[in-house]
Design goal:
alpha/beta; eight-stranded mixed sheet; 8 helices
Length: 240
């Protein structure tokens, strides 16, 4: 493992292989959860979907944490039922919740409720629950993070929002695939987390990150909105 502090913007942690990457990230997450449980009696974390973090979630569930004192929600979600296999809720449930017995899960999509009402409920809950001790992020090859897609019609509104969550229509954005309607954490919501982790695999992702930093354009590369925030520096865990 090789840790590099990059000015005051972020910390990059390079891991020698996937197993070391999984073990180190899971341990760091467990440490943050146990800190809040010891300090406040409970802990809350926000997770992303996708195949990259799934093995980390599986490893985390095996660690020594009082899961019945942990609340879990999502960084973002596709406009799909939580029971849909393409939803982030389904991935988190299958890779983590089925193993972390007792953990409480708050999905972003409520079955039978319209999108605006789901966003309203997510914001209400975020404003009246314990601040997350950590948020786990990913990054697409287009530079998006959460569901903040470059070129989406709602991106500027989401970036400027003073609420934790926003609805976003990513129609026409290749990275959104066939699921353009989303609920996403905003930069305002993200900065509420005391620790922010970005999980990356592969050299292409490092190249996208380099391009984002050189561009200094958070509309073109929304990942920058997770880097240049108040509070603790973003910690980036990478392996090939």
């Amino acid at each position: 493992m090789n840790t590099l502090d990059i000015s005051d913007r972020y910390t990059l942690v390079r891991h020698g292989d996937a197993d070391a990457w999984i073990e180190a990230v899971a341990a760091e997450m467990a440490q943050a959860l146990n800190h809040d449980i010891a300090a406040f009696g409970r802990a809350r974390m926000l997770l992303s979907g996708g195949t990259t973090p799934a093995p980390v979630y599986q490893a985390l569930a095996e660690l020594d944490v009082h899961w019945d004192r942990v609340e879990v929600s999502l960084v973002d979600e596709r406009w799909l039922s939580p029971q849909d296999r393409d939803s982030n809720a389904w991935l988190v449930r299958e890779s983590f919740l089925t193993r972390a017995e007792g953990a409480h899960f708050d999905p972003l999509v409520r079955v039978g409720k319209p999108l605006p009402e789901c966003v309203y409920t997510a914001n209400l809950q975020a404003q009246h629950t314990q601040a997350p001790c950590l948020s786990v992020l990913g990054m697409g090859n287009d530079g998006h993070t959460a569901s903040l897609f470059p070129g989406s019609r709602d991106l500027a509104r989401a970036l400027e929002s003073t609420l934790p969550y926003a609805a976003l229509d990513a129609t026409g954005c290749p990275g959104a695939n066939q699921w353009p309607l989303r609920i996403t954490l905003t930069p305002h919501g993200l900065k509420q987390s005391r620790q922010r982790l970005l999980l990356l695999r592969g050299k292409q992702k490092l190249e996208v990150l380099r391009q984002a930093l050189e561009s200094n354009n958070p509309q073109l590369y929304p990942i920058l909105n997770a880097i240049d925030l108040d509070g603790a520096k973003l910690r980036i865990h990478w392996c090939d």
